[in-house]
Amino acid sequence: LDSGKVDYGRAVPCSCSRGELRRKKSEFLERYSNLGALSRLTFDNLSPKGRTANAVSQEHFARICQAAKAFADNPEGWLVFSGSGGSGKTHLACAVANRRLGSGEPVFYIGAADLLDHLRSAFSPASDITYDELFEQVKNAPLLVLDDFTTGSATAWAKEKLEQLL
User: Fold this and answer.
1) Residues in domain IstB-like ATP-binding (predicted)?
2) Among 87, 100, 103, 104, CA closest to 145
3) Residue pLDDT, tens place only, 32-90
């Protein structure tokens, strides 16, 4: 709506370029997210009762799914999923990330083991990114999805780095 007022204090893109700017922002956020093929994991294709036939487990998963949706809409604090392998933790975490991405919000996904490998390799002289740059990128992510986080068999260095992040 053109009010007739001239605002010399801020740059405003013309209407013809807004669509292109939105597309570029979306592409940038998708690359930054590191989700790759996991971008297909959404709430829409998540079984709301999980993968089990057990009624109690189904009800429990449904409550967790609702909590994940609420967090995706208003991410405050932490949301931690724990459970056995194949229980849907990664799908839930990626569904949260993809909902935020769909809202135009930055998200960074990485598996804990991959993160530690990248941090170690950043010490190499041949690395394209310094350790500090990578660590700060992960540490300052508005929403960090750290998958397969476990410290059970981690080295002292790995535990220290993960604790520094969190």
Assistant:
1) 70-149
2) 100
3) 999 999 999 999 999 988 888 889 989 999 999 999 999 999 999 999 999 888 889 99
**Is 72 within 8 Å of 95 (Cβ atoms)?**
yes
Q: Where are the domains of the chain?
A: 37-105, 107-166
CA angle at 51 for the pair 44 and 85, rounded to the nearest 5°: 105
Least Cα distance to 68 among 91, 87, 86, 85 occurs for: 91
- CA distances 104 to 30, 86, 90, Å, are 10, 29, 21
Angle between helices 89-102 and 55-73 (to 10 degrees): 30
* Total residues found in the chain within this entry: 166
Angle at 73 between CA 147 and CA 100, to 5 degrees: 55
